[in-house]
Amino acid sequence: MTRPAPFTHRNLPRLLLEAREAVMQHTRPSLRGHGLSDQQWRVLRVLGEHAGDSGGVETGRVAREAFLLGPSLTGVLTRMERDGLIERSRCPEDARRTVVRATAEGLRLVGALSSTIEAHYAWMEARLGKARLAQLYALLDDVIALEQPDAVANAPRSAA
Description:
Blueprint: H1 12-33, H2 38-49, E1 57-58, H3 59-66, H4 70-82, E2 86-90, E3 98-102, H5 104-128, H6 130-147, H7 149-152
Antiparallel strand pairs: 1-3, 2-3
């Protein structure tokens, strides 16, 4: 039996997952305190970021921005609608599509949780330093652009 070639680089996907889990350890208790799953929070965050879009957000866009597969998103939205956090309707321009909006309660949760999450980011910035945190964001943006040039080529860089 031949031995596989040795790896010379660290396992980047695992490190990224480990970093995500480390950050989420600070966020998850707040989410659970409000009865939210990680996926529900990602949907609410997307809807909060697009709260000014009076027409709502098309479900395909929510799926892409929240990194949820369509079937998973359907279940998440069903539970969120049942809990009064979102409302769904047919797209006025194309009845085959569905749009989603956060309800007043959903937006209230976004506001309440954003304070906690922003406080954690401020803590990270204090520990890492503003320049290193900005460098981390820039490096992550660069890795994303490198691996998916068409999907990210025109996306603006953000501080998260």
